[in-house]
Design a protein that fits this description.
Layout (H helix, E strand, L loop, with lengths): L10 H52 L3 H86 L1
Helix pairs in contact: 1-2
Length: 152
């Protein structure tokens, strides 16, 4: 008896869903990296601000020049504004990460639904093959029985 091999009718679509998921994983990794980079920039700016504040306190004790204090104070204000801007950038990146994470979850769910469908069809195929095998065995059994009866 010749059994036909299992062939999933939607295999090309499943492969496409796997590729889409892989691409979305790459996009997600990219936005995660961007978020990490932006958070690192924020930490550096905050550290720099703290360092410069300490430097400013030390200079206050040493110098008495008004123009120095004004320029240094302006510099600290600029750093604070840069930090606030960087916080906005980080929040925007977090939102982007969340959006891409949701898209990735959708791609994973799509792939899994096609894989479940493939598994169901494969189980149906196995059941059909088993049924065909049992039918063949029954027929062979009947033929043997009939031959034995005729030879008696």
């Amino acid at each position: 008896m010749h059994y036909k091999p299992f062939k999933f009718k939607l295999e090309k679509i499943l492969q496409m869903k796997i590729e889409e998921e892989d691409e979305q994983k790459r996009v997600f990794a990219k936005v995660m990296k961007k978020l990490q980079d932006e958070e690192e920039k924020l930490k550096k700016l905050e550290s720099l601000l703290e360092y410069k504040k300490e430097e400013f306190k030390m200079k206050l004790l040493q110098a008495n020049e008004a123009h120095f204090f004004k320029s240094f104070s302006d510099y600290l204000e600029k750093l604070k504004k840069d930090i606030e801007l960087q916080k906005i950038i980080v929040e925007k990146c977090k939102l982007e990460v969340e959006i891409e994470k949701q898209k990735l979850q959708e791609k994973i769910n799509e792939r899994k639904s096609f894989e479940k469908l493939k598994e169901k069809e494969y189980q149906k195929y196995l059941a059909e093959q088993k049924l065909a095998e049992n039918k063949l065995l029954d027929e062979l059994s009947n033929i043997r029985y009939t031959r034995n009866k005729q030879n008696e």
